[in-house]
Amino acid sequence: MSRPRAERTLLKDHWVVDPASRRAGVATVEVHSGKIARLEWRDGIVEARRTFIEGAEPGQKDPTKMILPALVDLHAHFRQPGAGASEDVASGEAAAAHGGYGAVALMPNSEPAADHPALLRELVRSDSPLGLTLMPIAAATLGRAGVALSPMGELAAAGAVAFSDDGSPIADLSLFRNALISAGALGLPLIEHCEDPALTAGGEAADGFVATSLGLKPWPAVGEISAVVRNIALLREALRDEPRARLHLTHLSTATALDAVRAARAEGLPITCDVTPHHIALTDAWIAGDRRWAWEFGDRRPAELNPSADAYDTNLRVCPPLRNAADAAACRAALRDGTASAIATDHAPHSREKKEVEFGLAANGIAGIETALSVALAAHAAGELPLSLLVAALTTGPAAVLGRPELARGLTVGGAANLLVVDRAANWTVNRATLVGRSANTPLLGRKLPGTVLLTLINGEVAWQATMSS
Ligand SMILES: [Zn+2]
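Structure tokens for the assembled complex are given below, as produced in the milestone run.
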């Protein structure tokens, strides 16, 4: 295995954002022997300040090439074991490196589910590792079947960073409560996909104007909201028995569910949540062929839909479904006020066979780990997300959810060179040739996105370099 080692890399006068030290500004970074040998801020070291989020935006004349700490993903599916035709750890890792990621937590929705230490290890085993930190999330219940808890102690000892039955919400109330208590006793969070299948079974698109117009079966918002409210009540209950219980709600998509989390956090409950790039930037109107970003709608719904030739793209089928512009705006607002502490990709690669079918028969999921940063940068360019905040939501935010700040130590002299270089002014077109992952099931195919990742270094070694793609 020989990959180019950046023996000595000089990155002169880049815009640097480092949420760990709460610094942003123009700096020169030098990498030597896998470590950051020099970090020189042009105007001296910018003071760590409370106004980091608001006061650290690059100006017109600042460099467009940026250095960011390598990104951290809370939620990805690399389909190993079980579905190598869609992705495996090696291809997923390469895709992640292209996306600028240095650490990825992998969901246990493998086949079979990762409910046993040997399967947990398989979830992150790679034949050609690029050096990314891959973290297994263990199934909360045996087979993700929601009947009996998995051997959580053994799974924690085998390296699980969290427990989740992602995709299969735990329906049984006492089992959910026990999962919170057992995970909490091990110092690990329970990550829940909030959905009440009694309300969402067969749902194809968000309930509302678009689903009605297109004749798609509705997946009602209340299917998410009721699960969130229930889970918050059970967390409150579990804390009486286990004060270390922690709940993380993944890929929330509705304004009301986010309001419930906001209130729970204000109450002091140990609850966090994330939102996905597609829920902050896309709407269900995309299913009708409308390709405007969510923020280009304002808060108005489209007056009428004229389904175009692009309609019913099965790459838009995802769970929870894409929603209207107001819900997407609520997802961005949740990031801005800290209700959501992370952008998680929910990278869900699927082979063509699972997507080249009727809309309602298509597998749920979007392959998004290579486009997440660019989508976030598109939101930034539109004035929707401050740059420092979006970088935090892709680094320190997810690391904190996992209780592992070491994943996002940032850029420090003498520290490991885990970083990426991205040109926010450069565009790239998403297509089969530019994507590195094994599956290209993304509705962004053919779309020009801002933010080309030029280089990803992991421990100073090149995990991705733009020229490698041509
Ligand atoms: Zn899920």
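The longest strand covers residues 8-18. The pocket of zinc ion is lined by residues 166-167, 193, 250-251 (CB under 6 Å). Further analysis is deferred to the final report.
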